[in-house]
Amino acid sequence: MTPDELKALVRSVPDFPKPGILFRDITTLIGHGAGFAASVALLADRAAAAGAQAIAGMEARGFIFGAAAAARLSIPFIPVRKPGKLPVPVLAIDYALEYGTDTLEVDPGAITAGENIVIIDDLIATGGTALAAAQLLRQAGAQVGHALFVIDLPDLGGADKLRDQDIAVSAIMDFPGH
C-alpha cells in the first residue's frame, strides 16, 4: 500500500481531547491488516536503512509499531515506559508536556553502549516525548540518530526539534494543521 492509501486509513476525530483539536486516530490503521502490515514494513525498511541495531518505542502506541518493526528485522525492542512499570532499577527523565510534565523510564541493562537505536512512535506532534526518549537512551549509552513515525504533524514543530538535536526524522505521512 502507498503512503496515501495508508493516510486514508487514519480516522480524524474533531474536538478530541478538547475543542479545536483534530485528533489523528491510528486505531483504524492498525485495525486494517494490510494497512498495518504495510506501515510496519515501511518503518522496518527505514530502520534497516538507518542501520538500526535495536528499536525503541514509547508507551503505548510506540510499542505497537516499534515492536512489530523490530520483530520484522529480528533485532531487539526496547520499551520506553511510563513510571513504575519496570521491575528493575531504571534510568528516568522528566519532560514537559503541553499541559504539565511526565516521566519516561528505561531499563539500562537493555542497552549496549554505542548501540545504534532507532526510535519509532505512532505520531510526532510537539516532540516532547520523542526528545525525552532520545535523551534517556543517549544517557544509557545508545547512539540515537534516527526517529521514525507513522504520522507527523509538521505545524507543531516536533520533527524540527528532533533535527536540532541531530536526529534525522522520517514519517510515513503528515497532516498539516492540528
Automatic annotation (TrEMBL):
Q: Where in the cell is it found?
A: Cytoplasm
Q: Which residues form the signal peptide?
A: none
Reactions listed under catalytic activity: AMP + diphosphate = 5-phospho-alpha-D-ribose 1-diphosphate + adenine
EC number of this enzyme: 2.4.2.7
Enzyme class at the top of the EC tree: transferase
**UniProt cross-references to SUPFAM superfamilies, sorted A to Z:** PRTase-like
According to the UniProt entry, its GO molecular function terms are: adenine phosphoribosyltransferase activity
Q: What pathway is this protein a component of? A: Purine metabolism; AMP biosynthesis via salvage pathway; AMP from adenine: step 1/1
Instruction: Report domain Phosphoribosyltransferase positions.
Output: 53-150
**Which keywords describe this protein according to UniProt?**
Cytoplasm, Glycosyltransferase, Purine salvage, Transferase
* Major localization listed first in the record, in broad terms: cytoplasm
The answer to whether keyword Glycosyltransferase applies is yes
Q: Which HAMAP family match?
A: Aden_phosphoribosyltr
What this chain does, per the entry, is described as:
Catalyzes a salvage reaction resulting in the formation of AMP, that is energically less costly than de novo synthesis.
Name the PANTHER family for this protein: ADENINE PHOSPHORIBOSYLTRANSFERASE
Provide the assembly information.
Homodimer.
**What family does this belong to?**
Belongs to the purine/pyrimidine phosphoribosyltransferase family.
Name of the protein this chain belongs to: Adenine phosphoribosyltransferase
Q: Which organism is it from?
A: Novosphingobium ovatum
Lineage of producing organism: Bacteria, Pseudomonadati, Pseudomonadota, Alphaproteobacteria, Sphingomonadales
